[in-house]
């Protein structure tokens, strides 16, 4: 019955899974897992009247299983039972205070990403090992990776690929996970399989080309870029990669042509402007480079690289008014490091004989 409950629950047969949990609770009432899994299904369908007592019974059996406490607190909060919810969350904090570094990392990621991810719940997560829905497994793999649990993420995407081996998107997801693990061999193989199955996945081509360059297969990278740009001629990410490859080989005019094309197809992304400006400066076409950097600020008004380059150029040109104007924006940009600000200030003082005004 336990095995059958896992299969039902993992594959979306929730009514049947609840029947199994009811039977398991009858014959094995001291196992908190059955109460917890039943509570999760009830909560999924908004049946808090059943979810709450199931979680309370499970926690009476295992008060240290923190995911149950967190989920019970969330349900109580939604039911406007704030005092009880707060007590539950305080109990979690009283038991688990030790991972401050990871907490800071997750808070930063949450602030940047804006998405909410539920707490890792081993008693529920392990059900994915019995899942037969490749799409659902890919979602669970992505959620696990976001939480930093790459072992589960890899296991579930590999299971999804067993179920749907000709799905290019699944191979792409697996490739990104292997690259995150710094396993270039497996990442490369998965990216190659991705583009074989679906040549229109431009991001997979871009990452594959980056890997080719990382392992000194620059010729292969350029051949791949020529091939894929025939299929995706307006792919900004691929044009960007080819432009960078040309720049590395000293083919500045070819690089500039690709970067300017990136500006055309991705005019709201500062990257094409910045790359074009760098090449223009290398070609000693400084006025055009400055104009391109100024255009980049339309895409990202406070891009730190553009602000620093515009400040530096104004200083070297002896243009006090422009240097002063750009330096003020550099100071107001928190992504400019104190060291970079200090270097610009020193250059300003050397050229103009006084430090920049605050």
Task: Describe the protein's architecture and organization.
It is a single chain. With 358 residues, the protein is mainly alpha-helical. Among the domains are: 2-99, Serine Threonine Protein Phosphatase 5, Tetratricopeptide repeat; 304-358, no CATH class. Helices cover 75% and strands 0% of the residues. It contains 21 helices and no strands. α5 (66-78) runs antiparallel to α6 and α19 runs parallel beside α21.
Outline of this structure?
Among the domains are: 2-99, Serine Threonine Protein Phosphatase 5, Tetratricopeptide repeat, CATH 1.25.40.10; 304-358, no CATH class. With 358 residues, it is an all-alpha fold.
Label this structure with key terms.
single chain, 358 residues, mainly alpha, Serine Threonine Protein Phosphatase 5, Tetratricopeptide repeat, 0% strand, flat
Residue-averaged pLDDT, rounded?
A: 86
What gyration radius follows from the Cα positions, in whole Å?
A: 28 Å
Q: Report the CATH C-level class of the domain at 2-99.
A: Mainly Alpha
- Could you list the spans in which at least 5 consecutive residues all have pLDDT below 50? 108-116
Helix share, percent = over 70%
Structural class: mainly alpha
- First and last CA, distance: 73 Å
String of helices and strands: HHHHHHHHHHHHHHHHHHHHH
Number of strands: 0
Strand fraction band? under 5%
CATH fold-level name of the domain at 2-99: Serine Threonine Protein Phosphatase 5, Tetratricopeptide repeat
Helix count equals 21
CATH architecture of the domain at 2-99: Alpha Horseshoe
> Mind describing the biggest β-sheet?
none
CATH H-level superfamily title of the domain at 2-99: Tetratricopeptide repeat domain
Query: What is the general shape?
Result: flat
């Amino acid at each position: 019955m336990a095995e059958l409950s896992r299969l039902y629950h993992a594959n979306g047969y929730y009514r049947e899974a609840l029947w199994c949990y009811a039977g398991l609770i009858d014959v094995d009432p001291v196992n908190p897992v059955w109460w917890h899994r039943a509570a999760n299904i009830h909560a999924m369908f908004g049946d808090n009247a059943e979810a709450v007592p199931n979680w309370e019974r499970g926690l009476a059996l295992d008060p240290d299983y923190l995911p149950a406490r967190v989920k019970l607190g969330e349900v109580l909060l939604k039911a406007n039972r704030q005092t009880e919810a707060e007590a539950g969350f305080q109990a979690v904090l009283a038991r688990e205070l030790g991972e401050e570094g990871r907490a800071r990392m997750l808070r930063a990621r949450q602030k940047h990403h804006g998405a909410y991810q539920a707490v890792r719940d081993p008693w529920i997560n392990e059900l994915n090992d019995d899942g037969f829905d490749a799409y659902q497994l890919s979602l669970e793999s992505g959620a696990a990776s976001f939480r930093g649990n790459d072992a589960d993420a890899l296991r579930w995407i590999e299971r999804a690929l067993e179920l749907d081996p000709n799905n290019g998107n699944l191979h792409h997801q697996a490739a990104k996970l292997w690259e995150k693990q710094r396993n270039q061999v497996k990442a490369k193989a998965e990216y190659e399989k991705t583009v074989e199955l679906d040549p229109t996945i431009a991001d997979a081509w871009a990452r594959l080309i980056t890997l080719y360059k990382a392992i000194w297969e620059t010729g292969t990278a350029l051949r791949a870029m020529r091939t894929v740009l025939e299929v995706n001629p307006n792919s900004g990410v691929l044009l960007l990669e080819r432009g960078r490859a040309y720049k590395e080989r000293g083919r500045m005019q070819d690089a500039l042509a690709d970067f300017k094309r990136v500006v055309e197809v991705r005019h709201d992304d500062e990257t094409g402007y910045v790359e074009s400006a760098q090449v223009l400066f290398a070609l000693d076409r400084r006025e055009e480079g400055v104009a391109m950097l100024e255009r980049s600020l339309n895409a990202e008004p406070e891009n730190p690289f553009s602000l620093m380059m515009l400040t530096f150029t104004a200083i070297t040109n002896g243009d006090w008014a422009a240097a002063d104007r750009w330096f003020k924006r550099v100071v107001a940009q928190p992504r400019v490091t104190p060291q970079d600000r200090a270097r610009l200030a020193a250059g300003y003082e050397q050229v103009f004989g006084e430090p920049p005004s605050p």
